[in-house]
Write a structure and sequence with these properties.
By secondary structure, the chain is of the alpha/beta class. It contains 14 helices and 13 strands.
Length: 368
């Protein structure tokens, strides 16, 4: 989908958010440049003038408002439209953004197609022309596409399965998207027992079907409704024949059918780095790699991050998440900054539940 070579500069200090926005925009045909902070962004504008700037609010040193003022106070760059893209919901921030010259202000989470549509509208308003950027069919098709997100931990007992369910629920609440949960934590899995569902079919049966025979109607026969907008394709819940060979081409085809059908797919990969797990991680647009925050768990997460290339995985798509299932952890040493923290809630309180919800919301904002 060619965007007439429109150049977008993303000024964002958090690498995961910067990478994921870049991924979405390149997928839609834009030329994307990146800047890690305000000074780096202003320098990038002088070196390669963009058609539009996507700007975060909260950045160290020079915040987004100051960056926007620099852009608007320079006659050479004043006409470059700026869209603030932020997870902050401080009401005054929106007013301040427009006061310093922003064209739009978007609060995460939002759908990728909404960001693309907003960019299109802002560039159009600023005087740029779009010739054949979107056909009506292309817009409709893009609005239906979902993503595949997997959850994995190299250490068992850190709450991956519970987190997968909570994350699916957060997507339906904050992004209003339907979700299909796939349990690939083989052989036993844990999603169906946790949700008190009693499946007649499972993912291994589906993956015995040749790819050429699999349609959405076939997939639907293996999916169980958990609640409105959340469905489950369970694991078998029994020991498998060690010689069983699952068809991972069919697995990728199932993911393609579901995402093109408008579903967000959340895959519980579990804690075993099997060949099936590796292929599932490789097929995902994003993987949350979960640690409890404890030293041993952190070391194992770092080992996976460092060995990602060896397994054919893109390390940039592996996002560490701290899930404090073993208790509160003050200091966490990881080779990568975690994208979210879900605090320990062994003694539930309104504050702790709210903090946990904020951690899940942060995970959702990385997608939209």
């Amino acid at each position: 989908m060619q965007q007439d070579n429109k150049k977008i500069l993303i000024i964002e200090d958090e690498f995961p958010m910067r990478y994921l926005i870049e991924y979405q925009l390149k997928h839609n045909g834009y030329v994307v440049n990146l800047a890690k902070d305000g000074p780096d962004g202003l320098k990038a504008i002088q070196q390669d003038r963009p058609d539009l700037v996507l700007l975060d609010v909260m950045m160290p040193g020079m915040d987004g408002f100051e960056v926007c003022l620099h852009i608007k106070n320079n006659p050479e760059t004043a006409d470059i439209p700026v869209i603030f893209v932020t997870a902050s919901e401080v009401y005054d921030y929106r007013t301040r953004a427009f006061d310093v010259g922003a064209a739009e202000y978007m609060t995460k989470p939002f759908r990728p197609e909404d960001l693309v549509e907003q960019i299109k509208a802002v560039i159009h308003r600023s005087g740029a022309t779009y010739e054949g950027v979107y056909s009506e069919t292309a817009v409709s098709q893009q609005k239906t596409n979902g993503q595949t997100i997997s959850l994995f931990s190299p250490k068992g007992g850190v709450g991956v399965t519970t987190l997968a369910v909570q994350f699916a629920e957060a997507i339906t609440v904050h992004a209003e998207r339907p979700v299909v949960l796939i349990d690939l934590h083989l052989p036993l899995g844990g999603l169906a027992p946790m949700l008190r569902l009693f499946p007649r079919h499972d993912i291994t049966e589906l993956l015995k079907v040749p790819k050429s025979y699999v349609t959405m109607e076939i997939v639907d026969q293996f999916a169980m409704r958990y609640r409105d907008n959340i469905y489950l394709i369970p694991a078998p819940g029994r020991l498998l024949d060690p010689q069983l060979n699952l068809n991972m081409e069919t697995f990728r085809h199932v993911l393609d059918l579901l995402t093109k059908g408008g579903y967000e797919v959340v895959v519980d990969v579990g804690s075993q780095l099997s060949k099936y797990a590796i292929e599932a991680l490789a097929a995902s647009q994003l993987t949350f790699i979960v640690t409890s925050g404890q030293a041993v768990s952190n070391q194992q997460v770092d080992a996976v991050l460092q060995a990602a290339d060896h397994f054919g995985l893109d390390a940039r798509r592996l996002m560490p998440v701290i899930n404090e299932v073993a208790g509160p952890v003050r200091e966490v040493t990881l080779s990568r900054v975690p994208v979210a923290r879900l605090p320990f809630s062994g003694q539930p309180s309104d504050t702790k539940l709210w903090l946990k919800e904020q951690g899940l919301r942060k995970m959702v904002t990385l997608l939209y």
